Amino acid sequence: MKTLVISFSVILTMFFSSCARKHNVVNVNTPAIESNDTTSLLPVKNKWLDSIHNQTWRWMYGKYTTSYADGNKKFTFKTSLKCTKDSALNALISFASIPVFNALATTDSLIYVNKKDRCYGKKSIASFKDLLGVELSLKNIQELFLGLPLGYNDTLVYKDSLNLRGDSCYVNGLVVGDKTIAYCYASTVNAPRLDWQEITSKEDATIARVQYLSWQKHKDMFIPSSFMIAIKSNERNINVLFAYDKFELDIPQEIYLQIPDDYAPCK
Fold this sequence. Notes:
- The protein is built from four helices and 14 strands.
- The protein is mainly β.
- The chain has a 14-stranded mixed sheet with strand order 7-8-9-10-11-12-13-1-2-3-4-5-6-14, covered by helices on one side.
- The chain is globular.
């Protein structure tokens, strides 16, 4: 079970790097990028990406069929997520309809219950950097499942480019801190959603690419109904496919974690 827990955590955290942002509420209807001169068509600075990033939401619930492969093993399980924006997330992992791992994440801590070994534990979010070598951000996990640009900071200057032949927009950014993180976000010109996004950490020799395969509209937001995460590093290559079976947006969720009285601390 410990292997499963760590593997799933790696999937969600290998490429997450927290980034402070300001929050501007804008209309969720993304305008098309327009120009009278199509030979020199260039997107307005980050306008399409800002619109995706700043979409408003409060609650989400999703149940996903999750397929994991890393070259050595393959397995499929169910993942259920309940989120309230920037506040809390509850994740439940099940095999063959049997819950095996439950966790409650907040902005500063993670409480988990290992149902197989009948134990529980608590760690700070910061401690996952020591355990996994990367930072864990609650906000980044929510961005991933909502199809929002990971780690995007609308106060920074990003480089825009447009591929006229492919009708695609790209935004590239570089954030320099304890580690240098390179971001690339891509979308078709008239689409109010991402085609894919890629995050690269040179120091970790890690590249993570999120490819969005299909979308469904829920209220005023496009939500990814299936997406693939490919993580490449010196140690491993991981591919994870998420396909939702059920999704609800902005319906209040009861988010809590119950620890049975007869469970002991995990060793």
